[in-house]
Amino acid sequence: MSSILALLSMFTLAGSVLAGEAAPAAAPESVPFVEDEAALLKKLQEKGPREEAIEKGIAFLLSQQNPDGSFGAKHPCALTGLSVMACLAAGHTPDDPEHGPALRRALQYALSQMRDDGYLGLNDNSRMYGHGVCTLMLVEAAGMTREEVLERRLIEACRRAVKLILEAQAIKKPEAMQGGWRYLPNSPDSDLSLTGWQTMALRSAKNVGVEVPQTAIEAAVSFIRANAHPQGGFGYQGRDDRPALRGIGLLALPACGVYDAPELAASTAKMLKDPPQWGKGGFFYYRTYYAAVGMYQMGDEAWNRFFPLVDDALLPNQKPDGSWPECPGNNEWDYGYGIYTTSMAVLALAVHQHLLPIYQR
User: pTM to 2 decimals?
Assistant: First the structure.
């Protein structure tokens, strides 16, 4: 810790000299720094309620890992993708001495589920949801490991997964559905929920060097904007306002280079006026996750007003074992019991750590 204080002092001294100021006299050897060091160490070690909740959530998720590396019994490939992304968002990587072995087993499981055509959503019937989630997870993991062999294997798998996403987007569809995705690779229509996951997977893959035509990104942006409500919000397959989908547009459009669209400002205002609340509205965890990652993209002013509302919605409802329960009035529990809800809650709470590359501004 004394080395940290020494470095700070050195940088302060260098700045004064460069500015033309007289260098201050060196501190007498007898001046003690013990109290300062202890205070700084204590501050660095402090954990707020959000950090404690994230830590407990990750411990619960890892306790649920199956022997084959997967998570959950229903839709295990998709749930493995969400669980690993939650760990990555909390700062745990495949190189982590403590949690790395569990994450590498999960990655090996996900890779084993890829079909010859690159499809990840067939074996567990998670369809294009699981495919988009796992593709995004594999790309993010590739960007957060220093192990070259693992990184190359993940990126090669991502190339195959991206190829399938691009082929699914290119399926002949009605004009209003062009540019998006639906439940199956050969679906002749699209919806915003599936499109959000595939868009983020493509954008993330592009960040690590996987070839993604700009025309594919532009087509996805066009579909997303075509589903924007004139007064803010986004619809499932049209210009209505579905509260659970507002965050998708707020996340996907900036990630694809669209920063000043009028629908972003209008949707931000709606999000602040009508944030996710426990027991009110459907798809609570899905809505809260996308609301958090989307509002973070809207800048500090919006985020500083919004993230306490995320805390209010999630922190009081965490169970003693670290998991999150079913939200009253919702039907998300069936997606994966505590694994789905806990992964989504951790992903929402961990946004402020901005560790996942795709969610960074």
Answer: 0.86
